[in-house]
Design a protein that fits this description.
- The protein is of the alpha/beta class.
- The chain is about 40% helix and about 15% strand.
- The longest helix has 21 residues.
- The two termini are about 25 Å apart.
Length: about 350
């Protein structure tokens, strides 16, 4: 028996999708129909599968969204991708954002491949960030932890080096610590600053043969150094990444940006909600957008919790902190630099 529609409710219609390849249908549904259930929980339409036919029943707009999800997932499989729960969730999320960009194109945009592993954007925001790096001389990647700001910038740097678009990669960070002082740490200056540069080395090991990294660093093809080492230099023919830029002062940010030489590209990454500067010190990253507003060939990519590619809880944690920060603002009377939360979801929530 079919329920009668509520007065004023949109009419329910039926949309059918035929999948001619039985193996493609198996990949589309997933083991034990796991992937089908993910789609069912994310949309408002009812979905029924029989043989090689998917029947979608619901309001026309809901059916259109559901049909587009299946169309994109089918194209991903046809492009040689193995569907996972993560890729299904990301496809659904991108379609619900209402963008004209196709998830099948975003999720198959290869940046770098090594030993069978391919680095590519996993969200619409990441894809736009990567496109911005291709199209601008200076790009700021600003967003919470886990959004791939530094990792994707590193992949683009290695890609540029391999394509001979630049002759060297320069990676730098301000040596500002969370709760500790460098002077109290044991060892030489290099040993003291090494922990702050270690994340950059870790990313390099994912992208370049680890055995070649010492040689590349010794001959200057790759340089990893604290931000203070940039002063007084002009950096030509280089791909330059400033990581953890929220811990730069106004003066340090100006110093760094003016190191730009001919044939070079700069990517600045940071999270304005995690500033470790001493109290009262203004973060150069927080104000640089206002300073450089309208300057040609400078782009700001704002990543959000929707672009987090770590454990799914990380995205929820980022949103929870942003909500808490917003609630504190009326009490403190101070502006809180919170990360924008994800937009609403269409259809049923998980």
């Amino acid at each position: 028996m079919t329920d009668s529609p509520r007065p004023g409710a949109p009419a329910r219609v039926t949309t059918k999708i035929t999948v001619p390849d039985p193996q493609l249908m198996v990949n589309l549904l997933g083991a034990g129909d796991e992937l089908l259930r993910l789609v069912e929980r994310a949309v408002a339409s009812d979905i029924h599968v029989r043989g090689n036919e998917i029947t979608i029943t619901g309001a026309p707009a809901d059916n259109a969204l559901t049909a587009r999800i299946f169309t994109e997932l089918i194209e991903l499989i046809e492009k040689g991708e193995t569907l996972t729960a993560d890729s299904v969730r990301r496809t659904v999320g991108m379609i619900e954002q209402g963008s004209d960009e196709r998830p099948a194109e975003v999720l198959t945009l290869n940046i770098l491949s090594r030993r069978g592993r391919t680095i590519r954007p996993k969200t619409l925001g990441q894809k736009r960030y990567v496109d911005a790096i291709d199209g601008h001389t200076i790009v700021f990647g600003i967003g919470p932890a886990g959004t791939g700001k530094t990792y994707l910038a590193m992949a683009k740097a290695v890609q540029s080096l391999q394509a001979k678009q630049v002759t060297r990669i320069i990676l730098t960070r301000p040596a500002v610590e969370a709760g500790e002082r460098l002077g109290f740490l044991p060892g030489t200056l290099y040993e003291k600053i090494d922990p702050y540069l270690r994340p950059l080395y870790d990313a390099l090991h994912d992208m370049i043969d680890p055995d070649s990294i010492p040689r590349l660093t010794q001959n200057g093809t790759i340089e990893v150094a604290p931000l203070a080492y940039m002063r007084g230099r002009t950096l030509n023919d280089a791909f330059i990444i400033l990581d953890e830029a929220q811990n730069t002062t106004l003066e340090q940010m100006k110093m760094f940006l003016t190191r730009l030489g001919f044939g070079s590209k700069i990517v600045v990454t940071g999270d304005v909600t995690q500033v470790d500067l001493p109290g009262g010190t203004r973060s150069g990253l927080r104000v640089v957008r206002e300073i450089l507003d309208g300057v040609d060939d400078v782009h700001f990519s704002m990543l959000t919790s929707a672009d987090v590619v770590r454990h799914r809880l990380v995205s929820d944690i980022v949103d929870a902190y942003a909500k808490w920060d917003a609630a504190q603002e009326p009490e403190s009377g101070q502006a809180v630099h919170a990360v924008p939360s994800r937009g609403g979801r269409a259809g049923r929530r998980r």
